[in-house]
Specification:
The chain is elongated, with a radius of gyration of 17 Å. Helix 1 runs antiparallel to helix 2, helix 2 crosses helix 3 and helix 3 runs antiparallel to helix 6. The chain is about 80% helix and about 0% strand. It has one domain. The chain is mostly helical. The chain has six helices and no strands.
């Protein structure tokens, strides 16, 4: 459970940020681009809560695949096909339009995530070796 606590905390903070972005920003750089970078971090942390923080880079790759599939489903108007087109909640949650820029933002978010994973593992590994000396 100790390995999951940081993911729970980060997930809740990032989810709060995403909700605030969705409610208060109607456009601009933060809403249009940073929101897509942050959303893959939210999904990553959510997945790691259940996976126990063990699969890091594989989880990040899985989140990127999930984000790409979701984006491509937006391109075929999945919200309308599911009969959820009248719901502003689901239109915001799932999305309604395909954008290559979104794919780039998701990729950038996962790249930043992977860099963070590598740095964290390096710090933890160095700390373990320092303690052993």
């Amino acid at each position: 459970m100790k390995r999951r606590l940081p993911y729970i905390a980060i997930f809740l903070v990032l989810l709060g940020i995403e909700v605030l972005i969705a409610i208060f920003l109607k456009g601009g750089f933060i809403r249009n681009y940073m929101g897509d970078v942050i959303v893959v971090w939210v999904c990553y942390c959510f997945a790691e809560i259940f996976l126990g923080g063990r699969y890091n880079i594989r989880t990040a790759a899985g989140v990127l695949i999930f984000a790409f599939i979701t984006e491509f489903l937006q391109g075929i108007n999945i919200v309308d096909k599911l009969g959820l087109g009248g719901s502003p909640f689901f239109r915001t949650l799932i999305g309604t339009s395909f954008s290559v820029c979104d794919l780039i933002c998701y990729s950038a978010g996962i790249a930043i995530n992977i860099i963070g994973i590598v740095i964290w593992k390096k710090l933890v590994t160095d700390k373990k070796f320092s303690a052993a000396e």
